[in-house]
Amino acid sequence: MVDVIVQEPDLKDMVVRKLTSAGLPREHALVVADVLVHADLRGVHSHGVLRTEHYVKRIRQGGVNPEPDFTFRPTGTVAGVFDGDDGMGHVVMKEAMNSAIALAKEYGIGVVGVVNSSHSGALSYFVQQAVGANMIGLAMTQTDKAVVPFGGATPYFGTNPIAYGFPAARHRPVILDMATSSVAFGKVLHAREVGAAIPPDWGVDELGRPCTDPHRVVALLPFAGPKGYGLAMVVDILCGILTGSAFGPHIQPMYQDYDKMRKLGHFVCAMDPGLFMERSDFLMRIDQMIDELHEVAPAAGFDRVLVPGEPEQILHDERIKQGIPVPESLYRYLST
C-alpha cells in the first residue's frame, strides 16, 4: 500500500476538519489533532491520525460529550479528582495534567485521579507537559479488556499503558511510554490497515493460540509474561479501583456500543525534583546519565545505545522536515 507524505500542519488541519464536522468544538479538536499528530511524528501510528475515524463515529453516535463541563475537586493538599464529563480523553488528560502541574508548582507534587473520560491517545504527550515545566511526569490509563492474563486464555485487563517523563538540562527529556501488553492494540490495527503480518508474540486467536495474521487477533499477550500482567493490574487499580471507575472486563468497550459513554479512569502525577535536591543538579545528573549511556559500547547489530524516547525523538525531527507518511486509504478518508 502506498503512503502519502503529509506535512505536520496540513495533517493537523485535516484532522481538525473531520472532528469539527462531527460536532467537536474547534478548541478541543485542535488538542486532539495535536496529540494524534504527535504520535505519528514519533512513529507511533497506532495512536496517530489512524484513530480519527473512530472518534468521529463515537462523537456522532453520542458516545462522547462534545462540550463537557470540566471540574476539579481537591481531595487533599497535593491531590484531587478531575471529572472529564465524558469529553474527549485527549483534552481531559491534558487539563488533568495541567491541574497536577499547578499543584506541583505550589506544593512540589500534584497527584490527580481522572474520572468520566475516554480514549486519551499517546501518554508521552502528557508527560511531556510536565517535562515542559521542569517536572517529572507520570501518566497512566486503563483500557477495556484486550490482554490475556499470564496463564490465561481469555482477556481480562486492557493494554493499560504507563508513561514517565524526566527533564534534562542539555539533552532532550527521557520519555518512557509503554503498554503493559506486548504491543498496543493500535499496532495490530495499523498492521490491518497496511496489510502487514505481525510477530507471533503480539496476540492470540479465538483459541488462545499465537498468530501472525492481524485480522485473526482477538486478544494480546502481556509483555514479559507475569511482569506485564502485574503492571497491568497496578494500572487498573490506580486508574479504576482507586478513582471509583470500572475496571478490567467491566470497562465499556472501545469498539462496541458507540452511543455509550466509556467513563474511563486515568491517573497523572507531576513532581518537582527540587523536593529532593537543587533542580539544576537533578537536570545535570540526568545529563550525566544520558552521556554515560551513550558511551556504553554497543552490542552486535546496534550502532549505539539510546535512552527511552530518543529513537522517537530522532524520527520526530526527521518527519518535521520531511513530512509524515499516511496510508493512502486513510489519506483519502481525511481528505473528504
Strand-residue fraction? Answer: 15-25%
Helices, by number, come to 10
Radius of gyration: 20 Å
The proportion of residues forming helix, as a percent range, comes to 25-40%
**Structural classification:** alpha+beta
The strands making up the biggest β-sheet line up spatially as 2-3-4-11-5-6-7
Low-confidence stretches: none
What's the SSE pattern? EHHHEEHEHEEEHEEEHEHHEH
- Averaged pLDDT, please? 96
Number of strands: 12
Q: What best-fitting shape do the alpha-carbon axes yield?
A: globular
Largest sheet: 7 strands, mixed
What's the end-to-end separation, in Å? 19 Å
Q: Layout of SSEs?
A:
Layout (H helix, E strand, L loop, with lengths): L2 E4 L1 H14 L4 H16 L10 H10 L9 E6 L2 E5 L5 H19 L1 E9 L6 H9 L3 E6 L20 E5 L7 E5 L6 H10 L8 E2 L5 E2 L7 E2 L5 H16 L22 E8 L7 H16 L15 H13 L1 E4 H8 L1
Parallel strand pairs: 3-4
Antiparallel strand pairs: 1-12, 2-3, 4-11, 5-6, 5-11, 6-7, 8-9, 8-10
Helix pairs in contact: 1-2, 2-4, 4-5
List keywords for this structure.
336 residues; alpha+beta; 3-stranded antiparallel β-sheet; 12 strands; 39% helix; globular
